[in-house]
Amino acid sequence: MQAENYTQPKPGKPPVVNLKKPQTFFLANGLKVMVVENHKLPRVTFNLTIDNPPFAEHSKKGVDELCSNLIGNGNIKITKDDFNEEVDFLGANIGFNSHGAYASALSKYSGRVLQLLTYGALYPNFTQEEFDKEKAKLLEGIKAQEKNVPAIASRVVNALAFGINHPAGEYTTEETLNNVTLDDVKANYAAHFAPENAYLVIIGDIKYKEVKPIVEKLFGSWEKASTPQVNYDAPQNAPFTQINFVDVPNAVQSEVSLVNTIDLKMGDKDFFPAVIAAYILGGDFNSYLNMNLREEHGWTYGATTNIGAGKYVSKLKSTSSIRSTATDSAVVEFIKETKRIRTEKVSEELLKDVKAGYIGRFVMQVEKPSAIARYALNVETEELTPDFYENYIKTINAVTADDVLNAANKYFLIDNTRIIIAGKAADIIPGLEKLNIPLFYFNKFGQPTEKPAIK
């Protein structure tokens, strides 16, 4: 049988993305409203986002999460049961948290659904009974996570990277949760659920002229409040590469994370090169880390790299769950691959594939109302140029191998990285001690401790 010759089809021209610009107006209380008319489907979505700066909760850590869980859990306008029954009857989706609310519904019900959203968001009824229920659930969750190795690792990663007094580094414990009262939740809501940093994005089968007076009526009485402004010291990266070890005696594998903090904003010119560099290092199956740790060595089911970006300090983290006996060897390979992306230009073929993947995912997202809402919001909150998303494909296609190399050198700070490992000391420490990397010990809450006794 003669073999057929197949030629791979050539890629077509990059798609052109036309994002409709929102029509905007402000309310006197500071709420900014953005409306994008889209009459393809008889649906509408509402996204209310309160873009407050993060704040630390200290000895009452957990108050904001409790506030999140209680908003929408009853309001002073109609009973909780009537509210839930009506939402079901209208076939709507509706949800609340301490930073906003969301609803989607058929456009013929849009007026009533938006009214229900305001009931839950602006007129919550915080009761002792609901508070006690939600607090008990959170306490149960904390107890369930006591021996969970990934949960411990995640907590310690943030505590060490940001510091436990920073909003991104503090964590909830039984003690901090038990310090929280119903009055604390009410005070948290009053201080932070305010219109001055709030955005309402409305997308769908709705007319700007018709929705504007409805929004003005429903949200006009939302009272202004001065949201507290607190500044935090920028977290410091480690002065040198080091291993921070947490002993979890019940661990059957080790959680390994390489972490450094970064200040990367979406509007920065090296945003796309940095994001692409992170994807090449640990973004998908063919990434450097995955091909090494999983495919070549078989030490893990997968390894990933995540890079944070936004208005506030975030982190770069490469992580994997590794077979205990291979932990020290995996650390060597993590360092090797991170150095590789800082010193070796990515191949044109791999770069082309990664860029094509990004563009494909973007084009798929553009059809979704939730993505359009997020893009409209990002342009405002992240101070992006108005044509940021129109130029998205062009900007990604313009990224070169040199750009990726430069971004990796700027953000992948291997000489100031914490290698945070949570695992069983007896199985792991002897191997780690042979690596000649400074080794420090911490407990499950990121506090310094003595080297564990190895039996």
Describe the overall structure:
One of its GO terms (molecular function) is metal ion binding. InterPro entries: Metalloenz_LuxS/M16, MPP/UQCRC_Complex, Peptidase_M16_C. Residues 179-357 form the Peptidase M16 C-terminal domain. This protein is of the alpha+beta class and 455 residues long. The chain has 2 domains: 23-219, 2-Layer Sandwich (Cytochrome Bc1 Complex, Chain A, domain 1); 242-442, Metalloenzyme, LuxS/M16 peptidase-like (Cytochrome Bc1 Complex, Chain A, domain 1), CATH 3.30.830. Helices cover 41% and strands 17% of the residues. It has 16 helices and 12 strands. The chain has helices at 63-70, 80-89, 110-122, 128-144, 149-162, 174-178, 182-192, 208-219, 271-282, 288-296, 327-343, 348-365, 369-381, 392-397, 401-411, 425-433, and strands at 23-26, 32-37, 43-50, 93-97, 100-106, 198-204, 242-247, 253-262, 303-307, 314-323, 418-423, 439-442. The strands form 2 sheets. A 6-stranded mixed beta sheet has the order 1-2-6-3-5-4, with helices on both faces. Strands 9-10-8-11-7-12 form a 6-stranded mixed beta sheet, with helices on both faces.
